[in-house]
Design goal:
Pfam families: Aminotran_5. It is a single chain. The protein is of the alpha/beta class and about 400 residues long. It has two domains: about 25-280, 3-Layer(aba) Sandwich (Aspartate Aminotransferase, domain 2), CATH 3.40.640; about 290-405, Aspartate Aminotransferase, domain 1, CATH 3.90.1150. Helices cover about 40% and strands about 15% of the residues. It has helices at about 25-30, 40-60, 70-85, 95-110, 125-135, 160-165, 215-220, 225-230, 250-255, 270-285, 285-305, 335-345, 370-390, 395-405; strands at about 15, 65-70, 90-95, 110-115, 140-145, 145, 150-155, 170-175, 190-195, 205-210, 325, 345-350, 360-365. β3, α4 and β4 (about 110-115) form a beta-alpha-beta unit. The radius of gyration is 22 Å and the shape is globular. Mean pLDDT is about 95; it is low at about 230-240. The protein binds pyridoxal-5'-phosphate. Pyridoxal-5'-phosphate binds near residues 73, 175 and 196. Pyridoxal-5'-phosphate binds near residues 71, 72 and 98.
Length: about 400
């Protein structure tokens, strides 16, 4: 039996969860542009321009700043599988779900993975991390900057100097936090960084910008010569082990993005158009302004949530600007609230995972949706739904408190 379906026509939604969020209309237009050949000078120029744009996004001079085709974890996996050999030690401070993801991927690379743990809703001090580095002596410290699972932002400022002291590579997954919070790859001494588009960059998931320091590139290039060994197994020597992925083999991907343009994959052109436009939007607004906009709207959402008589989750001094965790009030069915928000009002807010499941909602103000009207619409809908579900709250207080933040009368 042959089936037929209508053309794609998604319902209108305001996505105010922890990601994905609504794409900026400019990004959607860029994505719909016509394709050109992989080595067309227009395409290779777009690739070079995208590298230059993301150097500004990451605040780096790193030559090797490019895109990995795939969702954010493609960026994570390319960094870890290219740098880590079986038996290498990695230290992962885990303060949320994505720390577990780094752990899991490093484990699959055959690395000896050591974790540091902290109660969810907290972050680590530099001293805690330095002490662990001193005893474990890892090859790499792999740390998430902002973990949407807990809304926490791990301060990275001091970790670069610590890692240099002990000759440790510093890698960060900044997918959730980039352009919504300060991130300075060079000043902070990062060796590798990977992100995605579907959080504050305001695009769809499917492209993972990364940047690599010269020090990091030297490490992965030591495994480059082994490529030849694939064809001639006897060629393998003891200097290093083969990178256990073709798709994520960074030395090969650098050859494709570099001047030689050696064929590897076929660049996902539509995603490249999209990643390029995401960066252009941020840089036209100004990186500082974009971060300030995320802070303003995040502060307004937080003040509004308190006005709705909701209790805040986690250490507020180390929270990301762009995601808020609030406890689901006693006696209120969290999923019924999310259902009504989605189906009656067309607004999505986030649930939680792991031991926070059923305990907190996560509300995002990111990218294109870090806007006053999106915040106020979400708060007024939430007030209505909460009231109908039996939660006691002072009428109008959510909007009033958010407005006070916008008017500079409160923080
Ligand atoms: C959202 C998020 C991701 C997303 O990974 P995908 O592969 O794009 O689903 C990765 N890391 C962090 C820290 C995130 O917050």
């Amino acid at each position: 039996m042959s089936e037929s379906f209508d053309q794609i026509n998604p319902p209108p939604r305001l996505l105010m969860g922890p990601g994905p969020i609504n794409a900026d209309p400019r990004v959607l237009r860029a994505m719909s542009a016509q394709l050109v050949g992989q080595y067309d000078p227009a395409m290779t120029s777009y690739m070079n321009e995208t590298m230059a744009l993301y150097r500004q996004i990451f605040e780096t001079q790193n030559q090797w700043t490019l895109l990995i085709d795939g969702t954010s974890r493609a960026g994570i996996e390319s960094v870890l599988v290219s740098a880590l050999e079986p038996g290498d030690k990695v230290l992962v401070p885990v303060f949320g779900r994505f720390g577990h993801l780094l752990t899991e991927i490093a484990h699959r690379c055959g690395a000896e993975v050591h974790t540091l743990d902290v109660e969810w809703g907290q972050v680590f001090t530099p001293d805690q991390i330095e002490d662990a580095i001193k005893t474990i002596r890892p090859k790499m410290l792999a740390v998430v900057q902002g973990d949407t699972a807990t809304t926490m932002l791990q301060p990275l400022e001091e970790l670069g100097a610590i890692c240099q002291r002990y000759d440790v590579l510093l890698y960060s997954d900044a997918t959730a936090s980039i352009v919504g919070n300060a991130f300075k790859a060079d000043e902070w001494g990062l060796d590798a960084v990977s992100v995605g588009l579907q959080k504050c960059l305001g695009g769809p998931s499917g492209s993972a910008p990364i940047t690599l320091s010269d020090r990091f590139v030297d490490v992965i290039n030591q495994r480059r010569h082994i490529e030849a060994g694939i064809r001639d197994a006897h060629h393998q020597d003891s200097q290093g082990q083969i990178i256990r992925s073709n798709y994520f083999d960074l030395p090969m991907i650098l050859d494709y993005w570099g001047e030689e343009r050696l064929n590897h994959h076929t660049e996902a052109s539509s995603m490249l158009y999209c990643a390029r436009e995401c960066a252009r939007i941020v840089l036209q607004e100004g990186l500082e302004n974009t971060i300030a906009r995320h802070k303003l709207n995040g502060d307004a959402m937080r003040a509004g949530a308190e006005g709705l008589n909701l209790k805040l989750f986690g250490d507020q001094a180390n929270k990301m600007n762009n995601v808020l965790g609030v406890y689901i009030p006693e006696g209120v069915d969290g999923e019924a609230v999310r259902q009504s928000m989605l189906l009656d009002f067309g607004i999505e807010i986030g649930t939680s995972f792991g031991h926070l499941k059923g305990k907190i909602w996560r509300i995002g103000t990111m990218g294109y949706n870090a806007r006053k009207d999106a915040v106020l619409t979400t708060l007024s809908a939430l007030e209505n739904v909460l009231r109908r579900m039996g939660h006691k709250l002072p009428q109008g207080e959510g909007i009033d408190r958010a407005m006070a933040v916008y008017n500079g009368e409160a923080s």
